[in-house]
Design goal:
The structure holds 2 protein chains of 2 kinds.
Chain A (H helix, E strand, L loop, with lengths): L1 H21 L12 H13 L1 H18 L7 H16 L9 H25 L6 H32 L9
Helix pairs in contact in A: 1-3, 2-3, 2-4, 2-5, 2-6, 3-4, 4-5, 5-6
Chain B lengths: L1 H26 L5 H75 L9 E9 L7 E4 L12 E3 L4 E8 L4 E5 L6 E6 L5 E5 L6 E5 L11 E4 L12 E8 L9 E6 L8 E5 L17 E3 L15 H17 L6 H9 L6 E3 L2
Antiparallel strand pairs in B: 1-2, 1-12, 2-5, 3-4, 3-12, 4-5, 6-7, 6-9, 7-8, 8-11, 9-10, 10-11, 13-14
Classes of the chains: A mainly alpha, B alpha+beta.
Chain lengths: 170, 346
């Protein structure tokens, strides 16, 4: 369990580094993928809502500490709730479905990004307009959906090597 | 059942912690514990981002360049047309340069490049898609302070918003929360320029009737209390629209700087324009009420000459330094025509 936590933590750090150092040069319509949100959604899809909430809270805190204009706690809230919602919706999809992870990745990314943008606009910077939030949500949703198969394969290997034990697991 | 309750409990705890953090962050100032925690996170991640960035950035740039190839053909056509225009302008440039040098000598204006600067490398961008910031590899140890302007070879990049010992965070000029005083280089029309994220920047002109054309260059304007030196290039006007109201008018500005390809920037060591000091020797001067004629009693229409004589007498008494507080003098001043504010020494 501890080893799994460390591995997932390192995965989140790697995601932050890629997101801030590599993907600025690979934007889609001027937007970058949100790898931390993608990992939250993918882990919640595979391991359930408890893992989704935990990973989402840590990923959100990392986002909060690396941005300057949004208040600390906003990412914790949005990413944590996104992990919980995706985890809760998982039983409603067929376990062997190939499209379900993609649909969840797209929906989780679009809704998570839109919620973060709207709350950031309300709490921190009112000049982040509705059109910008909409553009960002769609672009991030598209980008994250493209990266979802790779992220899913990575998380599957980690989950197989370090399986989650105890309550909240399959 | 137990699992679901546990998740709900954890989620409720998460929401409570998030709300508490947001509240604490809002109520605390710039140097709060959470702000220091952000600084620590930036400092810790900076070497990792720096090292990884050096390794993987070339791949990212190469992949990005593939996308740029599609735009190269049309850009080439556009550039050829621009070269012809620039060739014409170059012929008059030598004369303008000489004139410019002479005027600089005459006015003894310090060239803005004489300001102390430090060159920095861009190590990371913000992880959020709704915040346009970069992390650079110079910090307080290099003399960087919050609020300092950041430029590159093309023009204005942004300003420093967070400083740690070995790194700093720069708010880019395209961030929606960025704002700076600006003017048109050609006509000097002033206004405020704001970032708009991925969209072109917006220049809000103070004069809604100002004449601004597409292609006009926009530069920073300095003002008392501002942080940017005057004359830093910002961009060119890309679209001019008619004002929606008689008091407001916006034009769109395409920035010179390519914010997706920032590698090296320069931090300008200036803390803005100082407040204007008071004139020397003006301490102790008192303000005296000017001789304003009464509003309801304009005085006899055929006796204006008498009134002027009285006022002159009163003025003579003031010049002599006597009779500054008597009722008679006040009456004389009140009936005298307005001649401006009188300031006398102690």
């Amino acid at each position: 369990m501890i080893v799994r936590g460390i591995v997932v933590g390192l995965l989140l750090v790697a995601a932050v580094v890629l997101q801030t150092a590599l993907f600025p040069a690979l934007t889609l319509f001027g937007f970058r993928p949100d790898l931390l949100l993608l990992l939250t959604v993918v882990i919640a899809t595979r391991d359930g809502e408890l893992a989704g909430v935990r990973v989402g809270a840590v990923a959100g805190l990392m986002t909060d500490l690396l941005v300057a204009s949004s208040p600390v706690g906003l990412g914790v809230f949005v990413y944590g709730v996104a992990g919980a919602l995706v985890g809760w919706s998982r039983p409603y999809f067929a376990p062997t479905s190939l499209t379900a992870p993609l649909v969840l990745a797209a929906a989780g990314s679009v809704l998570g990004t839109a919620a973060y943008g709207v709350l950031a606009s309300l709490l921190a910077d009112e000049r982040v307009g509705a059109s910008l939030v909409l553009q960002g949500a769609i672009a991030v949703g598209l980008y994250n959906t493209l990266l979802a198969p790779a992220a899913g394969a990575l998380v599957r290997r980690i989950s197989e090597a370090f399986p989650l034990r105890g309550a909240g697991t399959e | 059942m137990f699992q679901r309750r546990r998740v709900r409990l954890l989620l409720a705890l998460l929401v409570a912690v998030a709300i508490a953090l947001v509240t604490v962050d809002f109520r605390s100032g710039d140097d709060s514990g959470l702000d220091r925690l952000r600084g620590v996170a930036t400092s810790v991640l900076r070497p990792i981002q720096d090292g990884v960035g050096v390794l993987i950035r070339p791949f990212g740039d190469a992949a990005g360049a593939v996308g740029d190839l599609f735009a190269v053909r049309s850009e080439n056509r556009e550039l050829r047309a621009r070269v012809e225009v620039l060739e014409e302008r170059r012929r008059v440039l030598d004369d303008l340069e000489r004139e410019n040098a002479e005027l600089r000598d005459l006015l003894a204006i310090a060239d803005r490049t004489e300001l102390p600067t430090v060159t920095a490398r861009v190590v990371a961008l913000a992880p959020s898609n709704f915040e346009w910031t970069i992390t650079i590899d110079v910090g307080a140890a290099d003399g960087v302070e919050r609020g300092m302007p950041v430029i590159d070879g093309d023009g204005l990049v942004g300003r420093i918003i967070q400083v740690t010992p070995n790194a700093s965070r720069v708010l880019l000029a395209i961030d929606p929360s960025f704002s700076a005083a600006a003017r048109t280089a050609l006509t000097g029309e002033v206004g405020m320029i704001d970032g708009r994220g991925g969209d072109p920047m917006a220049l809000r002109l103070l004069d809604p009737a100002a004449v601004v054309d597409v292609g006009d260059a926009i530069v920073t304007a300095s003002y008392q209390g501002g942080v940017f030196p005057a004359g830093i290039p910002i961009g060119t006007v890309s679209q001019v629209t008619e004002g929606t109201s008689p008091l407001a008018r916006e034009v769109q500005v395409n920035p010179y700087v390519d914010f997706t390809r920032l590698h090296h920037v320069v931090v300008v060591f200036t803390t803005g324009v100082d407040d204007i000091p008071p004139f020397e020797g003006t301490e102790g001067f008192e303000f005296r009420r000017p001789p304003v004629p009464p509003l309801l009693d304009p005085g006899p229409t055929d006796g204006d000459e008498e009134g002027e004589e009285e006022a002159d007498e009163a003025g003579d008494e003031q010049d002599d330094g006597s009779g500054s507080g008597s009722d008679e003098d006040d009456d004389a001043q009140a009936s005298a025509p307005l001649r401006g504010v009188v300031v006398t020494g102690p």
